[in-house]
Write a structure and sequence with these properties.
Elements (H helix, E strand, L loop, with lengths): L2 H29 L2 E2 L11 E2 L2 H16 L3 E3 L3 E2 L2 E2 L4 E3 H21 L3 H17 L6 E4 L3 E4 L4 H19 L5 H19 L3 H21 L8 H19 L10 H6 L1 H16 L12 H7 L4 H24 L13 H41 L5 H14 L7
Antiparallel strand pairs: 1-2, 3-6, 4-5, 7-8
Helix pairs in contact: 1-2, 1-7, 2-3, 2-7, 2-8, 3-4, 3-8, 4-5, 5-8, 5-10, 6-7, 6-8, 6-12, 7-8, 12-13, 13-14
Length: about 400
């Protein structure tokens, strides 16, 4: 497939999602799928859900035109010859329809967590049965790791995990849609370079549909994607990662998805770790995601989203660089080039430094200044030690007692 196929598919998915999102919002109002303002959410008024149905429509229309019936993987990628494998597009789209339907029902009727999980597992199993299953991954400096008997189970876990990661991160206007747009484009670029054109087009379609919805979802949002959209985008990105990277046996295969999806993974990982630490259920909703913390520190929704977009762009750009910077020749036995290795190391250090800045400085230093101001206003005699202790307790527990 050609690059232009991905570009046209991106544009069509974007246009369809843009046009149909207001209709999805109208349907949401009619069936009562409305998000109300709450402490853990940043919605300022009653907002219709079901934007995911417009995203699904964009994906289906563009896929019907540009996606092949089957996606064949290259017989030789990177290290060695391989047996050609085939992924059935109809199965991928069937899984997408199922998870969007489950999400839409949840948006309108609030399903129990176990029923949502069963729906996610069912959608992932359909994709795996259609050929989107990983049986081998190549790690840099390590080589191939094979799991011929557990590949299907691991792939289901990956897809279900990514659905929930995107769903958990969907808490501020424009965040999930924008991050998925960036990530979809990055996956498309890498998949084309790896010779998996069908996966590249699927990733481009996902990005286009997310962007079309984003036009209505950027702050102040007129509609939310809801579980129907968040689960769908997580599923599609997960599938694109499997067939466009993980199944290729290229050195970048596992590293690229982890970098591209690092922001939602880190956000979800921190939140779940904190819930487990304080003996809360991992799926229990709270207000401890990155965007919640930034809001408490005084960031506007647009500024919060801008920071997280920038972080996602840096990490996605690093993943693309890992594929295109010629620090080795991409063929085994791998021959590394010292000069380009230094360039790659510098890029990694820059991105890591920026990530530490966003996590550490924005989460702690700025919060400490705001907290010190509140405490001193309530009690001018508050000492530095008392401020440090209060900030430490707030950050550990995630509970922010209002002062003054």
């Amino acid at each position: 497939m050609r690059y232009w196929d991905a570009v046209f598919a991106f544009v069509v998915a974007m246009v369809v999602a843009t046009v149909l999102t207001p209709l999805a919002a109208r349907l949401a109002r009619r069936v009562g799928a409305i998000a109300m303002p709450s402490e853990r959410g940043l919605a300022e008024r009653a907002t219709p859900l079901l934007g995911g149905l417009a995203i699904l429509a964009g994906v289906l229309v563009a896929a019907a035109i540009w996606m092949p019936g089957t996606i064949g993987l290259p017989r030789t990628v990177g290290a060695r010859p391989r047996t050609g494998e085939t992924v059935h597009t109809w199965a991928l789209l069937a899984g997408a329809c199922l998870i969007a339907l489950i999400g839409a029902i949840d948006d309108a009727r609030d399903l129990r967590p176990q029923y949502k999980l069963l729906g996610q597992i069912a959608a992932a199993v359909i994709a795996v049965e259609g050929g989107a299953v990983v049986t081998e991954v190549t790690l840099p400096f390590v080589g191939a790791l094979t799991f011929p008997n557990t590949g299907g189970v691991l792939t289901v876990i990956w897809l279900v995990g990514l659905m929930n990661v995107v769903n958990f991160s969907d808490g501020v206007d424009g965040l999930a849609a924008g991050v998925c747009t960036i990530d979809g484009i990055a996956f498309a670029v890498i998949a084309f370079d790896l010779g998996v054109g069908g996966a590249a087009v699927l990733a481009a379609i996902t990005a286009g549909a997310a962007l079309g919805f984003l036009f209505h979802n950027f702050h102040p949002a007129s509609v939310f994607m809801g579980d129907s959209g968040a689960n769908l985008l997580g599923y599609l990105l997960g599938v694109a990662a499997v067939i466009g990277s993980l199944k290729t046996q290229a050195v970048v295969a596992l590293v690229a998805p982890l970098f591209i999806l690092a922001v939602p993974f880190l956000d979800t990982g921190f939140v779940i770790a904190k819930r487990l630490k304080y003996r809360r259920k991992p799926w229990t909703a709270d207000a401890n995601h990155f965007h919640h913390r930034m809001a408490r520190m005084g960031f506007s929704q647009r500024k919060t989203v801008a920071y997280l977009y920038g972080w996602t762009l840096m990490l996605a750009g690093l993943a693309v660089a890992l594929r295109f910077v010629p620090y080795h020749d991409h063929h085994a036995p791998y021959h590394y080039h010292p000069v380009w290795e230094i360039v790659m190391a510098v890029l990694i250090l820059i991105v890591l430094a920026a990530s530490l800045y966003l996590i550490y400085v924005l989460e702690i230093f700025k919060f400490r200044r705001l907290r010190a101001r509140e405490l001193r206003k309530a009690d001018p005699d508050t000492t530095e030690h008392e401020i440090d202790e209060r900030v430490r307790r707030d950050l550990e527990t995630g509970e922010f007692e209002r002062v003054g």
